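SAMPLE LOG
Freezer: B-3
Tube label: C17
Construct: single chain, 168 aa
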Amino acid sequence: MTRKPWDLDFTAEPTEVAALRRILRLHLGIWGLQDVVDDAQLCMSELVSNVITHVGPGTPATLAVSMNGVRLRIEVHDPDARALPTLLDANAESEYGRGMALVDAIAYRWGIQLHADQKVTWCELVTGLSAADILCVTSSSRESREGICRVRNGAWIEYGCASKQSST
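STRUCTURE (predicted):
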């Protein structure tokens, strides 16, 4: 099955979160990743909510979803490279600070990529896919941690993916 990366521009508003959750559920269902829908929706909601809360409502942003080897990668791009998400130790009385703790608890890994004009906050979730479902081969024109992934049905898709050794 081909799991082509996709992205969607949106305006960071509280009313957009529900629509983004529905779109994500639809795409993951098409990809055969129903087992990770709930976790993916929760992580995506938290990443989008961070933009709304810390960058501001009305901020132009992008949701990007792809596969990184056998892991689902969710990215939220926004134009403020200064408002960085942080993992806080929220106590029972705290009104804020639990969002990234939820992402940290659910995701295989998460992080932030800083660029001159934007930041990308991302997380990766473990899926039920095995390395046998996706074969990654390195390409001399790409960095060593990126490659071209061959999906079982023969389609070739460019991704950042695990190196060839991980297909065992």
